[in-house]
Amino acid sequence: MASAAVMDRLVARSLAGNAPLNVHFDVTYRCNERCVHCYLDHADHGEMTTAEIKRVLAELADAGTLFLTFSGGEIFLRPDFFELLACARKLRFDVTLKTNALLITEERAAELRRLGVRRIQISLYSADAAIHDAITKVPGSFARTLEALCFCHTQGLLVKISCPLMKQNIAVWREVQALADSLGVTFIMDPTISPMMDGDRSTLRMRLAPSELLPVMQAPVFDSPAPAPAKDDAADMAAAFDNIPCSAGHNSLYISPYGDVYPCVQLPLPTGNLREKSFAEIWYGSAQMRRVRNVKESDLAICNDCAIRQHCQRCPGLAFMEDGDLGGPSQRACELAEAAARIAGVRDPVSGLRALGRLHATSNSHPAQLVHIAALSTPQEREAL
Amino acid sequence: MSAPQPVLASVRPAQNPLAAWREIDGVVVVISPEDSILHELNPTAGFIWKHATGERTTEEIARLLADEYEVDAVTALADTRDMLAELAAKKLLRLETPSAGEVSRG
Predict the structure, then answer these.
(1) Exposure winner among A49, A152, A167, A198, fewest CB in 10 A?
(2) pLDDT at A226
(3) Does A21 contact chain B (CB < 8 Å)?
(4) What pLDDT, in 10s, does the model give residues A250-282?
């Protein structure tokens, strides 16, 4: 049986029944890097204990979670991390790790493999040590991360280099991709730069303008994003996603180191705390979780009237975080949709917010830049950027 | 790939501890640690999988299968052996070798 078709059916079933298939679990916000774009508060305000996390893992397994991502902060700063990992594997989760890898030694890489960790995503910002270290603010971090990455790859772990895109490294992403290719590991770019958790928006200074971002996003590396549903299961998959904005709160969720449950790491709408309630009580009983599930694409009044909707990749979390309305339009999405529409050949595209006279730039983009991009109509010209 | 080896009735099959799996909405899915393929098991295979804990023999699992699906013992044992051989060939299961005493009784 083709794995893609099986995955399509699994996702469709989990969405239909609100099974919590995917969980992103930050086990700490502490970190040994100080990345310039990071949105986290790195102080420890009372992380869940080993016993508390083990109890939560057992509850997640009972509820049907299969795909578990341990992230942070830096996960290996928890002295009990391997104990948590062993517990998760004993409960038969499919575990993915997100890490800067600074603390992964050859022995630890072997232990990850022995425990049955399948995938590890490692942040690398540049193939140039100076640029990478300037972003992490840790001298020598590039060399250490790269060495650890090789330890993991040698052990047979599926290694993916994650390269968040920002002002500091926009010019060098191709070198990171080339490095990934030369190492035989996969590579993704992430253009999302979020406000800090306390609402501080200073990180957005690092965010790329649509004029800078879109030519990159149209590069061949982005030609094959998520695999398309297998033919026989496309109908099930399409029906499952038919009227919901995304999987957040439907079959996926986020858990903070303090036990707070959110629909998504990018949707900071508290739905309950695992120190006060069981996972099942929160997942199935929270009014806020129901509120998220009740957001339907057909209810997005402004977006549904938007002339360039097909160019939009609105994220409900960013709409909530930056514009305050889970079901409303998003400044960032409108900006990007207009730029994408221009590149696709739409003359003078008008997003939903612009039509209402409410679009203002969320980054350093300005009309002159967008016009400049629109004039670069051939792939070669856009590539040259 | 070579043909699956016949499974003795006395063998105690055990899930590969490196495999990840869940039962979601009544369907068992298993991720192979060897090749990362996601397998969806049919109801019979899922039933056998859940009982392959290393504690029951193939024969005991077949008896449970016969009771669950109201099939005769011979058919249930044949189906169980075939399914276990297939899962073992994909390295999702380990077939624990029975002790000498168990073999002689099997």
Answers:
(1) A198
(2) 40
(3) yes
(4) 999 999 999 999 999 988 899 999 999 999 999
Largest CA distance in chain B: 41
- A95 in B contact zone (CB under 8 Å): yes
Out of A3, A65, A116, whose CB is closest to B33? A116
In A141-170, the residues whose Cβ lies within 8 Å of chain B are 158
| CB-CB neighbors (< 8 A) of A89 in chain B | 17
Residue with tokens 């830049």: A369
What is this structure's pTM? 0.87
Is B27 in Cβ contact with A64 (below 8 Å)? no
Could you tell me whether strands A67-71 and A94-99 are parallel, antiparallel, or unpaired per DSSP bridges? Answer: parallel
A237 residue type, one letter: M
Domain boundaries, chain B: 12-105
Residues above pLDDT 70, as percent of chain A:
86
- The pLDDT value given to residue A285: 97
At residue A223, the pLDDT reads 42
Contacts of A308 (CB under 8 A, 6+ apart): A337, A338, A340, A341, A346, A349, A350, A351
Rounded to 10 deg, the angle between the A129-136 and A141-154 helix axes is 100
* Alpha-carbon gap, residue B70 to B89, rounded angstroms: 27
- Domain B12-105, what fold? Arc Repressor Mutant, subunit A (1.10.10)
Over residues A124-172, the pLDDT tens digits come to 999 999 999 999 999 999 999 999 999 999 999 999 999 999 999 999 9
Q: Does A62 touch chain B (CB under 8 A)?
A: no
CB B75 within 8 A of CB B85: no
Q: Which amino acid makes up residue A24? A: H
CB-side exposure of B61: number of CA atoms within 13 Å? 30
User: CB-based contact (8 Å) between A116 and chain B?
Assistant: yes
Strand B38-40, strand B27-31: pairing: antiparallel
Question: ipTM of this complex > 0.95?
Answer: no
